[in-house]
Write a structure and sequence with these properties.
The chain has eight helices and no strands. The protein is mainly alpha-helical. It folds into two domains: about 5-90, Rna Polymerase Sigma Factor, Chain: A, CATH 1.10.1740.10; about 95-180, Arc Repressor Mutant, subunit A (Orthogonal Bundle). About 30% of the residues are buried.
Amino acid sequence: MTEQQIVNGIKNNDRKAMRAMYDLLAGHAMATAMRYLDNRDDCRDVLQEGFLKAFSHMGNFNYRGEGSLKAWFSRIVANESINLLKQRSHIAIIDIQDVEMPADDPPPDVAHIPPEVINRMIASLPTGYRIVFNQFIFEHKSHKEIAQSLGIKEDSSASQLLRAKRMLAKMINRYKQEHDD
């Protein structure tokens, strides 16, 4: 089934279309949830909630071509992941005025690092860093949008992103040193 057929089928309560959407998007959605959450059970819960939300709100979805269903569902999963993090823990956001910021270093070369290793590194970031990093890098949200969704200042979002990038760079450089033998 194409995305268009899936969307039309779900709008008509077709269970085969729902299954087709699950088969098409579950793997990508799980990867999206894993970027935010460090627990597979939480990711499964988010996926279940995400699919329920998508199925029940499909009438509001406006199909805009191949890939639009995947993008829409990815946003649902990312938002559900953030909501779960907000419910379960305090998201530590450091205000930029509290931190002395050194000059930017060039980004490390990740060409020979397996994607699953990079994903584990991202998952190991502190919660606030991880959320801002994922929202900015993968969801393509602006600092203004991130700040509004988290209830923080734009400068704090920028600070969290910078700190996340620096922490990832250190992890990547450490990994490269350990595996260049």
